[in-house]
Amino acid sequence: MKHLGLEETRTLLVQSLNMGLDIRGETTFTNSFDVIVSEDGFQFVPRIPAGYVLDDALYQRIFGIASGALYPYYTMLKQNGAYFVPLPENSVHTARAFFFPWLEGIPTRLDITDMEKFKSGIAEGVLPVMANLAISIGDIAHLVIAGNSGAGKSYALTYLLEMMKEQTTLKIVDPKMDAPTRWAEKNDVDVLIPDGDRSQNDFVNLVCDLLSEALQVVRTRQLALKDNARSQFTPYILVIDELLALTSSVSKSMKDTFFGLLSQVALLGRATGVKLILLSQRFDANALPVVVREQANVMIQLGNVNRKTTQFLLPDLSNLDGIVIPPGKGTGLIQIIDGKHPANVMPLLMPTYGEV
Ligand SMILES: Nc1ncnc2c1ncn2[C@@H]1O[C@H](COP(=O)(O)OP(=O)(O)OP(=O)(O)O)[C@@H](O)[C@H]1O
């Protein structure tokens, strides 16, 4: 795709804002505002005093106009509120701007035809997510995937498992005995599945045992860290699929025990490389303790994206206007809070691959 130069980008933005912003006839022609573009994003510089209010609503309107106008050359990174930057060199009339960060291009899906070959080309510890987006496995505290039925959760999980299997210790809980079980059996990975003869309470009890084992690993590692703060650990990952279904018909005391253990692993696992990967059709306080969500730093919402489906998992996202969600299977939103990527919510296309 053609690269859009900065000057060309600025012209497009100025024209789009002049025509679309509709702030009481104020345009660049009346010298009401200016647009400055850079590699990282653009600034909207208002001339103050202005006949319009510099508030969140104006910021989001500019975001919406720019986001559509610049697609597919740039992906605008959604902000929760107006992002002000000071311009101290300027006169008092233009000493502030709204800043709109962007990434060049649009999120591009990885299309993997040969998984083994693909993996051999990737550095250890790296988890590619899209063509221009990779996460370090070590930087994942806990990862959460939500999505309606058929959105691509199992497919996404299988990809993650395949990418991590050689570098981590994996334990899988699969209440539906579905794709994760097939993958685990093929790859000789421990998987806990329901036994027809046992009750749901019994099954959740076994999941609690697994969480207790994970806590034991945490404790052993904490002792190692006490002696040597630079101790390195192989990531120990506990995957729990269908979280909402798992606890939907168990006794309150069992659910409380389960939530208590899950919260402890989430809180203590972070420093010791003990990680949770949790999947559910829907996440709310009933499916996941808030403290676990707060400890998770990679959040993925697949399929149906709207205010309702995102409010628990992506609470910072006050509105979805201007976020272009790609169509197709295994698409949605991702937020990575690892201090290395912009912590904004970004459109996501999970990789497509052949048989694994
Ligand atoms: N990234 C992707 N690329 C190509 N195809 C995909 C992708 N993600 C999902 N699909 C296709 O969509 C179908 C449904 O995906 P999947 O079974 O993972 O959904 P799910 O969210 O786990 O649904 P359920 O909750 O009902 O189990 C799969 O058969 C798969 O082939």
From TrEMBL:
<dbReference type="InterPro" id="IPR002543">
    <property type="entry name" value="FtsK_dom"/>
</dbReference>
<keyword id="KW-0067">ATP-binding</keyword>
<dbReference type="GO" id="GO:0051301">
    <property type="term" value="P:cell division"/>
</dbReference>
<keyword id="KW-0131">Cell cycle</keyword>
<feature type="domain" description="FtsK">
    <location>
        <begin position="126"/>
        <end position="311"/>
    </location>
</feature>
<keyword id="KW-0132">Cell division</keyword>
<protein>
    <submittedName>
        <fullName>Cell division protein FtsK</fullName>
    </submittedName>
</protein>
<feature type="binding site">
    <location>
        <begin position="147"/>
        <end position="154"/>
    </location>
    <ligand>
        <name>ATP</name>
    </ligand>
</feature>
<dbReference type="InterPro" id="IPR027417">
    <property type="entry name" value="P-loop_NTPase"/>
</dbReference>
<keyword id="KW-0547">Nucleotide-binding</keyword>
<dbReference type="GO" id="GO:0005524">
    <property type="term" value="F:ATP binding"/>
</dbReference>
<dbReference type="GO" id="GO:0003677">
    <property type="term" value="F:DNA binding"/>
</dbReference>
